[in-house]
Amino acid sequence: MNITLPLSLQDKKKLTAGQKAYLSGKVYTARDAAHKKIVKAIENDEKLPFNLKNSTIFYVGPTPTRKDSSIGAAGPTTSSRMDLYTEELLKCGLSAVIGKGPRESKINKSLVEHQAIYFVGIGGAGALLAKSIKKTKLIAFPELGPEAIYLMEIENMPLYVGLDLRGRDIYRN
To answer: Which residues are catalytic?
Structure first.
């Protein structure tokens, strides 16, 4: 299924755990260190580096850009590392996340409650996923190096639905 971001509720309802999806549009990158800074900003009522409402976050720390592309390898990071921060971001309207591996059950429940989708990529396929990244732009926290927040424009990124709106989970069902 071809999906254009930001995700509409109508598109989210069509997605089923295990289904292949090709995502196109804008995603933000963020891993552990960036999540910690975002949550701290939320707690302190500070301006966020980007609007979380209807956004998609890709858990990735891309490798340095190669001459012939907009990025190096961009494989998904283990999602459970972000579980500590995910609920707070979902409360702010986060629409979808991209990573790999199972999530805590309470995070799955929170994703369903907030009508957010969990997409998964295949570990070790960073070079393949990087081919879908057409542009990157540093948005915040340059001091974090590859864990900084980037805005990426992606086209037909091949992923799978890891958790759908009905709570079906490819890692547990």
So the answer is: 35
Q: Which amino acid is at 154?
A: I
All domains in the chain, ordered by first residue: 2-163 (3.20.130.10)
Exposure string over 67-82, b if 16+ CB within 10 A, otherwise e: eeebbebbbbbebbeb
Q: Is the dihedral of CA 96, 102, 106, 109 positive or negative?
A: positive
- What is the average per-residue pLDDT within 85-105? 97
Check if the beta carbon of residue 154 is closer than 8 Å to that of residue 27: yes
Residue with the bigger pLDDT between 128 and 33: it is 33
Amino acid identity, residue 142? P
Task: Specify the pTM.
Answer: 0.92
Mean pLDDT of all residues in 124-147: 85
Alpha-carbon distance of 152 to 62, in angstroms, equals 11
